[in-house]
Design goal:
It is built from eight helices and five strands. By secondary structure, it is α/β, with parallel strands linked by helices. Keywords: ATP-binding, Kinase, Nucleotide-binding, Transferase.
């Protein structure tokens, strides 16, 4: 890789994106960009009534992530500095396509493309793939009150949506390298060897 890479960590709710991004940032001495989650004022309402609050929720996330990515471009990418993020902006479409319907979904798609089509895409995506039981255990362990209302059917659908999205990104963004991590078998938090294998692979991809 001839330039300083932009790295993103992705996966469904509970996969461990922020944890892995933070660990890699420390190991590789990289700045880390973390998405705003708990600050979203619509989260509690959304998990209680998705139909009524999905548009407000998704627009809040989209605008905040757009601003973060804009700042990332200014402070890191345009200056040739490597950076790691615990999300890919494309996740907004993954969630928006699942939670929005009809004209609201159409409007959201249009706004998403207006904001993001000319922004840089990650050079490397670390995709943490995990099944429903693994995600539920990790969600319970971190104990976010607003996540207690997540329906298992919604989470299972997100797992399938993420698999489809990563396959789509492999075609849409051929210059991006997608490294899939089996979150069911690889415990990068408790097993140092597992983590170092991931870090070593990322170092290789950065060269």
């Amino acid at each position: 890789m001839k330039h300083a890479p932009f790295i993103a960590v992705e996966g469904p709710i509970g996969a461990g994106k922020t944890t892995l991004a933070s660990m890699l940032a420390e190991e590789l001495q990289l700045p880390v960009i973390k998405e705003i989650v708990e600050e979203n004022p619509f989260l509690d309402k959304f998990y209680q009534n998705m139909d009524d609050w999905s548009f407000q929720l998704e627009m809040f996330f989209l605008c905040n992530r757009y601003k973060q990515l804009e700042d990332t471009v200014i402070h890191y990418i345009d200056k040739g500095k490597p950076v790691i993020s615990d999300y890919h902006i494309y996740k907004n479409l993954i969630f928006g396509e699942r939670t929005l319907k009809g004209t609201k979904r159409d409007k959201y798609r249009q706004i998403y493309h207006v904001l993001t089509d000319d922004l840089p895409k990650p050079d490397i995506i670390l995709y943490i793939k995990a099944d429903l039981d693994t995600l539920l255990r990790r969600i319970a362990k971190r104990g976010r009150s607003f996540e207690e209302a997540i329906e298992t059917a919604y989470l299972q659908q997100l797992i399938e949506d993420y698999d489809a999205a990563m396959a789509s990104l492999a075609i849409r963004e051929p210059s991006t390298t997608i490294l899939t991590i089996d979150g069911n078998l690889i415990d990068f938090v408790e097993n140092r060897e597992h983590f170092m294998e991931i870090a070593s692979r990322v170092k290789e991809l950065m060269q």
